[in-house]
């Protein structure tokens, strides 16, 4: 039934190695190989295995040449129990916290370590449901620095344009302020001149009236 199919998908086991499945490491360095798993119904006696350059995802009782780490987890309240691991591989995850982390670190990386690393998980509580995710490791002699010249040029141009726009706005404000002050000054002069003319005219008129000869 469709409803049962949706229910089964919702409780499926999922394994993830993060947003990208490619990792670059420097020769003779240590590199983290991330892996987490999730399941809605929990897990019991879960088994996880890390494989190197292998498509045969079988957790065999004895370590196979392609296995580099093999562990078991009783339940969500316990940390993994080591079954077998390559001496250069170190478990750095934790399964008692929020994320079910089963990441490992490969120490003293060599050029021969480049290849495909698969994180495989089997959960008996989900009728032995299995899932896996893969990381591709590249080993280099020196790290190549990313050329950010184009990015810096674009940032510089955009920053220059923004600076010019701000300068233009400031100049515009100053000019408008000067024009406003000039206009206000002219208005004050006009008002003052008009007042003086009226006063002088009034005084002249008074004097003219005083000097007028008396009528006979």
UniProtKB/TrEMBL annotation:
The keyword Disulfide bond applies. It is a single-pass type I membrane protein. Residues 1-18 form the signal peptide. GO terms for molecular function: sodium channel regulator activity; transmembrane transporter binding. InterPro entries: Ig-like_dom (IPR007110), Ig-like_dom_sf (IPR036179), Ig-like_fold (IPR013783), Ig_sub (IPR003599), Ig_V-set (IPR013106), Myelin_P0-rel (IPR000920). Residues 188-216 are annotated as: Disordered. Pfam families: V-set. Residues 191-201 have a biased composition (Polar residues). Coiled coil: none annotated. It is found in: Membrane. Residues 2-136 form the Ig-like domain. Keywords: Disulfide bond, Glycoprotein, Immunoglobulin domain, Membrane, Signal, Transmembrane, Transmembrane helix. SUPFAM superfamilies: Immunoglobulin. The chain crosses the membrane at residues 150-171. GO terms for cellular component: voltage-gated sodium channel complex. Its main location: membrane. It comes from Chloropsis cyanopogon. This is SCN4B protein.
